[in-house]
Write a structure and sequence with these properties.
With 214 residues, this protein is mainly α. The protein contains ten helices and no strands.
Length: 214
């Protein structure tokens, strides 16, 4: 079952929030779902309650998709996985709107993404698809923030003509970043490990910093 098979009211809300942000009116969401605003209030208590439910559905969907992608990559099916990603574009749109909205909910959403990433990154390491890290938490945090940041900057600096065309934006980002990202993760960038050795030496015994005026 895909995320789009979720409760129709929740699905309509996720789609609307992904396109317009969390300022979207309950009336518009209700119209998308073919129900009355009163029914939304009855089901979820408030707009905040509806958003909390949407957060749960989106986070669970992202977690499941990541595990599916890891399994597909292990089976040599990376390209089919990438080309079937239009369905997932609203989930990324929703995640970006969470970042843009700021506040406790936006920060909590990203922290949940990072927590979930620990699980599926550990899965990739266990399957032999990824190398273990000296600091797994730092690596996972970097990967989540850099991935969300790349999508966010693409959306802000070169937005699609149709703001609702999240699949088109996602395809463009993949075409621009897919090769360099996979190349970097697979083959690396530096030809020696000198920089890493220097950094590890530095962080284990950093030089003293002179105080102002010394």
């Amino acid at each position: 079952m895909t995320w789009s098979a979720a409760d129709p009211l929740v699905h309509a809300a996720i789609m609307r929030f992904a396109r317009e942000g969390f300022g979207a009116a309950l009336r518009a969401i209700a119209e998308d779902a073919g129900v009355s605003p009163a029914l939304l209030i009855k089901r979820f208590g408030s707009k905040a309650g509806l958003r909390e439910t949407c957060d749960d559905v989106v986070l669970e969907a992202i977690r499941a998709i990541k595990h599916e992608n890891i399994s597909a990559t292990a089976a040599g099916q990376l390209l089919p996985t990438l080309t079937s990603s239009d369905e997932y574009a609203p989930l990324l749109g929703y995640a970006l709107q969470s970042v843009l909205s700021g506040g406790p909910l936006g920060r909590a959403f990203i922290e949940h993404m990072i927590d979930d990433a620990h699980e599926y990154t550990a899965d990739a390491v266990q399957r032999g698809l990824a190398r273990p890290s000296r600091d797994e938490h730092a690596r996972v945090r970097y990967l989540v923030l850099s991935g969300v940041g790349a999508f966010l900057l693409t959306m802000l600096l070169d937005p699609p003509e149709d703001p609702s065309d999240l699949p088109g934006l996602m395809r463009r980002l993949q075409s621009e970043t897919g090769l360099p990202m996979i190349e970097l993760f697979t083959e690396g960038l530096f030809t020696t490990r000198q920089m890493l050795d220097d950094y590890l030496l530095y962080v284990s015994d950093p030089p003293a910093v002179d105080a102002p005026g010394d």
